[in-house]
Write a structure and sequence with these properties.
With 116 residues, the protein is mainly β. Helix content is 0%, strand content 48%. A 6-stranded mixed sheet has the order 2-10-9-4-5-6, with no helix packed on it. Strands 1-3-8-7 form a 4-stranded antiparallel sheet, with no helix packed on it. The radius of gyration is 13 Å and the shape is globular.
């Protein structure tokens, strides 16, 4: 059974930072591309960032220069470092296996709220 468990969300002031983690089990993590997707209140899903098995990464324009995705294959863990957070970054953040339209398994999500 594939399991993805996100953690690290919370309430942060504008300009602050958070690091999200996604612990992955039940899949060959090393061979999988991974993605972060978010959903703001009342809005649809928005792709945030992806990283391939070869460690190539890409970020949405809305977070470019502020967010960075990384992975620790020894720990089967995906990370999203979020800096200079803005109120519009408020959302539930999900990690998922795969890329683009080929996302597979998803975690349950972690809430990030950016507010003063």
């Amino acid at each position: 059974e594939v399991q993805l468990v996100e953690s690290g969300g919370g309430l942060v002031q504008p300009g602050g930072s958070l690091r999200l983690s996604c612990a992955v089990a039940g899949v060959n993590f090393t061979r999988n591309a991974m993605s972060w997707v978010r959903q703001a209140p009342g809005k649809g899903l928005e792709w945030v960032s992806s990283i391939t098995a070869a460690n190539n990464s890409a970020n949405a324009d809305s977070v470019k220069g502020r967010f960075a995705v990384s992975r620790d294959n020894a720990r089967n863990t995906l990370y999203l470092q979020m800096n200079t957070l803005k109120p519009e970054d408020t959302a539930v953040y999900y990690c998922a296996t795969g890329l683009g339209s080929l996302l597979g398994s998803w975690g349950q999500g972690t809430q990030v709220t950016v507010s003063s």
